[in-house]
Amino acid sequence: MHACFESREALYLVNHGIDEAAQGVQRLKKSPKLSMETYHKSMAGLERRRSIINLQFILECANWKPSRNNGFVRIVATPVRPCMVAA
Fold it and tell me: E strand or H helix at 87, and its extent?
């Protein structure tokens, strides 16, 4: 089986850990010693790390699809053109 599908549990655990860390930072928000700037930087840093990890996982999995023998075969990814939004 491809590593991307074996890594789902690890990805879940990473996201769960980030959720727990974010809850801890939210509890620290009640402390008078924690500035709002520090709180916002901490939360933004956690979410940035989460998005990088999730994006890496998704990109790794994007080039694989199931085959008939329940394995996975590599496919050629079609480049995605950026969407132009009218202003």
Answer: none
